[in-house]
Amino acid sequence: MVSAANHRAAGVAARWARPSRPAAAQRGADAFDRWLAIHRLRRERSLPRHVFVDHPAGPRPCYVDFCDPFAVEELARQEPAEVLITEMLPAPGQLWWRVDGREQCAELRLGCVVRSAAR
Hints:
By secondary structure, the chain is of the alpha+beta class. Helix content is 20%, strand content 20%.
């Protein structure tokens, strides 16, 4: 159960539409060059450490922690495309949902149908 005392309203997460990888992160580059290119992009765009990356080829957004070298490498391996990057809010350490004492992240998506009013 969520109480008002332990739930912090997150507000609206920041979003960015960007190419999935900078030119220096192309497949021919080595892992270190890809790491540097992704982190340059993160610094230039002021991206937060924890984000979700929605790639058009993926079934759902993918969580990326820019301090995790495996996550950064996976991001650099994606096919070139425009991606939607969404800030993770609340961030780790601020998540209110816990399972067996461990923080869990979840997203609730709703579909809405808007119809014109009957006259």
